[in-house]
Amino acid sequence: MSKQDNTALARFITSLGSLNDYGSTVAQTKQALDLNSPQPLNQGGEDVAIFQDALQGIAAVKQVGFSVDGIIEINRAFATPLVEQPTLPGHLRNGFYNEDDRIAITIDSRARLSYFPPEVVTRADLQAIVTAFQVSPRDETAAWRVFADLAKLQPFQDGNKRTALIAANAAANTWAHENYLVLPFNDLDRVDFTTALMRYYLATDKTAAQQAFDRMMAVLPSNREQQLHRPISPTEDARLQRVRVKPMLRKG
Question: How many Cβ atoms are within 10 Å of 89's Cβ, its own excluded?
Fold first, then answer.
């Protein structure tokens, strides 16, 4: 029996982790999967928690399926100690009764512009997103709409974008062929994707929302499956470790 190739899953976890400053390389992540141990990952930050939560979230939704309960179970699986972690995993926010459920998403680095999601989120809100996918063509575009709508709804205290990306993959049923939906591989495209997602958050009408969503879709990798499964090159992960990095995008 041949050993499972974890290259695609490693790239998916690395992509998912980029939503929370995951610092381990694709090669490190693959080694952790191969060894079934987080030991090869960077130990100084929160990479171990993100790695374990990703696997637990995937396992949870595989068992339950893409549904309201499946989405909740993804977030409920995020129980590993982490700074950006829900205090009550799987709990739908209700800002009327719990101050920790009142959240805002800062759109710019100086907090001059913020997005305020609904204070109260119900199962009916999640069902609306599930139903919209079920009556759609159920293609990748519809699955990315699941990601965008869940991310904008912010149904949980934290871990919402990670929950949304796993849920989108569950909707598209990418597990069998490992053709995971991932964020852009190129850093500049990822910045464009994130900016478009922020525009999607702020959109107050269907036209603005569609324009923002189209911007998101435009920068997704067209050769995603080929990129996911290609061998990890010796320089793919090591290059930035040999140079002094000067970020183009700075805070403040």
Answer: 21
User: pTM of the prediction?
Assistant: 0.91
End-to-end CA separation in angstroms for the chain: 54
Contacts of 184 (CB under 8 A, 6+ apart): 190, 192, 193, 219, 220, 221
Name the token pair of 246: 């000067």
Q: Provide φ and ψ at 44, rounded to 5°.
A: -80, -25
Alpha carbon distance 10, 228 (integer Å): 9
**Tens of pLDDT along the chain (252 residues)?**
347 899 999 999 999 999 988 999 999 999 999 999 999 999 877 899 999 999 999 999 999 999 999 999 999 999 887 655 677 889 999 999 988 899 999 887 665 789 999 999 999 999 999 999 999 999 999 999 999 999 999 999 999 999 999 999 999 999 989 999 999 998 899 999 999 999 999 999 999 999 999 999 999 998 899 899 999 887 665 544 434 444 444 443
- What is the C-alpha to C-alpha distance for residues 71 and 48, in angstroms, rounded to an integer? 22
Fold of 7-182+221-238: Fic-like fold (1.10.3290)
How far is residue 131's CA from residue 49's CA, in Å, rounded to a whole number? Answer: 32
Point out which residues pair with 120 in neighbouring strands: 94
Q: Whole-angstrom Cα distance, residue 107 to residue 29?
A: 30
**Beta carbons within 8 Å of 143's beta carbon, 6+ residues apart:** 133, 168, 169, 171, 172, 181
**249 DSSP 8-state letter:** S
CB 7 within 8 A of CB 228: yes
